[in-house]
């Protein structure tokens, strides 16, 4: 694993509906909670093993039609976080690698036409 994939800081703001990550390489990612919840990497949300990795970055840019709150974040080893949502869902392990790939900043995900 690359060292750059480690986050320096993880902050969640339910009032802003955002999860903020500052990475060890200085990169910053701001994820909408809606997009994160909809991109939950657990098998149930991904629709089974055959469709794993079908993440949709555009979900970070759509107008949320649902309100999600993060109740808690648990660090899993040094490679992932487990998010407990206010709807009780908590089986999603968000790998740092996945979160970095999903980064919706303009550099990582240039504006889609
Ligand atoms: Zn899930
Ligand atoms: Zn980025």
Structure report:
It is a single chain. This protein has a single domain, classed as NE0471 N-terminal domain-like (2-Layer Sandwich). The chain is 15% helix and 30% strand. The chain has helices at residues 33-38, 43-46, 96-102; strands spanning 7-13, 18-23, 28-32, 70-76, 80-85, 93-95. It starts with 6 loop residues before the first strand and ends in an 11-residue tail after the last helix. One zinc ion binds next to α2.
What ligands can be seen in this structure? zinc ion
Strands in their spatial order, largest beta sheet: 1-2-3
Largest sheet: 3 strands, antiparallel
Q: What fraction strand?
A: 25-35%
The CATH topology, please? Answer: NE0471 N-terminal domain-like
Number of strands: 6
How many domains in all? Answer: 1
Task: Offer a few descriptive terms.
alpha+beta; three-stranded antiparallel β-sheet; 113 residues; binds zinc ion; NE0471 N-terminal domain-like; 6 strands
Question: How do the helices and strands line up, and which of them pair or pack?
Answer:
Layout lengths: L6 E7 L4 E6 L4 E5 H6 L4 H4 L23 E7 L3 E6 L7 E3 H7 L11
Antiparallel strand pairs: 1-2, 2-3, 4-5, 5-6
The protein binds zinc ion (2 copies).
One zinc ion binds next to α2.
């Amino acid at each position: 694993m690359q060292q750059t994939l480690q986050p320096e800081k993880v902050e969640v703001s339910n009032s802003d509906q955002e999860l903020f990550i500052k990475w060890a390489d200085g990169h910053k990612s701001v994820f909408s909670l809606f997009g994160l919840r909809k991109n939950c990497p657990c098998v149930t949300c991904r629709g089974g093993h055959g469709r794993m990795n079908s993440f949709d970055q555009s979900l970070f840019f759509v107008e949320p039609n649902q309100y999600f709150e993060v109740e808690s974040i648990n660090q899993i080893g040094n490679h992932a976080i487990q998010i407990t949502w206010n709807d009780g869902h908590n089986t999603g392990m968000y790998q740092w690698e996945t979160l970095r790939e999903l980064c919706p900043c303009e550099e990582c995900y240039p504006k889609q036409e």
